[in-house]
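Fold sample X.
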Amino acid sequence: MDDKRSVLIVEDEPKIRSGLADFLEFHNFHPTAAQDGLEAKQLVSRHRYDLILLDLMLPKISGEELCCKWRQEGLTTPIIMLTAKGQEREKVAGLNLGADDYITKPFSLEELLARIRAVMRRTDPAKSVGRQFRFGPVAVDLAALKITAAGREQPISPRQGKILQFFAANPGRVISREELYRKVWGESMEEIETRTVDMHIAKLRSIIEANPAEPALIRTVRGAGYVYEANHESV
């Protein structure tokens, strides 16, 4: 069975494109290359990839436009944007459109590899933390759909389990409501879903927090989202 992770490289510069493909193949990935935005769009419509390396400046369809369209269509594949030096505005726009990370050209291949592995870890929490893991002082068992805290067991729903699993794979990182909804629900978030996310977080806090009114494990970061404080042990 082939366990190589598939990566789509969307890059219009032939030397960069072939160099990235050779490097990723050497590191046990399965690369596919597209030379412009239209070819990338067609490939993604036909195949599933584990990660997409997406250049911003592309012929036919720009990287920004592709990223926006894919996220609107509900594509949850992690995306790392490749940007030229000085494209600060484009970087911010790309992250706001749903990219998971970006790296600025020229970049070292070792840095890119580290970014790829980090993004894959945090966007694939099932492989990162497994189905039994610690959430601060709480023991989580997704197979049994239960948590254990202070010697007491409590059932949780599959959705609550996925939320805990995603936070556990991303300790200390601020996660926006949109990202959480996209990764857990598998859909692009509309305005109405903001309340859905908040309600699920509130319910989880009532289960895992010692004082849900002053949460210590899942903290709200005003204007940005939520962050999991992995080292808090007060429950």
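Fold sample Y, listed below.
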Amino acid sequence: MTDDAVGAPGDGEPGADVSAPTHKSPVWRVVQILLAVAVVAISFLYAIPKIANYSEVWTEITDMTPLELLFLLAATALNLVTYWWANMVSIPNLGLWQAAVNNQTSTTVANTMPGGGYVSIAVSYEMYRAWGFSKTDVGLSVAVTSVLNIFAKLALPAIALLLIILSGRASGSLVGASIVGILILATAVVLFGLVMWKKRFAKTIGSGLGRAATWVARLLRRSRTFDWGDAAVRFRRNTIDFLVERWFWLTSTTILSHLSLYLVLLLALRFVGVSDAEVTWAQVLGVFAFGRLLTAVPITPGGLGIVEVAYIGGLILAGRGHADVPTDVFHAQVTAAVLVFRALTYGIQIPLGALTYVIWRTNRSWRKPAPIADPVP
């Protein structure tokens, strides 16, 4: 699964005390779809054209050389493979091609459905179970990788802020966004540390988060109750040994996946002509970090429309007063880079996922009966 897919504490755990979800009403689904379509339309038909003319953007894209395009494709391929490696590290005995099929299929679901990050977890879970992996292994993988990816997304603004300040190019908007990320990260780290420290803290925090989730569900008029106290205790018990054994590779693959994604954006900017003097690599990292946080907003699939506008606006703001080309050219270059970046890291995932879905449905050699779970002491 990509890091955009998120899971609640205890999801996939045996015996998790979470009530069965109720189906969303057709009206709510229609509202979600219409809202997503409206946001995407406003972003691509109004907001972005206000920033740069699409014909000028296309000119900047076509000016890239075949070698530059090859480097971009290679960086994109590296980024995809890092997600496969992360899946292999989190689930014992998972093969590379199984990880690829699982990741690409679930990513397509996340990129094509409103709130698809949550649906992709169910798709990923079904695939793992069909391949014979236990509920405990799958649930632990989803929970731990989700937590690590959330921490990575929250840590990026803090790192970017430090680098931007050291480079002397800090701006008020980036500093403000980074400080918010730092505060959220600090809170998340403290809560996670308490969960790992003592069983009673795990139960208390899990129950508190469950009550908060129940309150949010009722605001959305969904009759669903969450009780994550016992699930948090099970999560703590399973996670401690899991992290002790694999913390290095789990952390390494998580960091590598985020940095390789950032590399695609940085290369796209440089190849369309945005120099380091205009927007430094540290500023690019800061805008990238803010954009990663926005992908968690479940308004449009994968943040489509919202993320593009945020990246374009943030990069133009970062380079304001430093561009060595006319303003309209600079805007076109930034827009071209962001659209190329999103086409490679978002758009290309959809046909790849459709292909891997067909592979999953037709390849029976990977299918195995699910193991019988050992009784819990």
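Sample Y note: The chain has one domain: 26-362.
Also: The chain has 13 helices and no strands.
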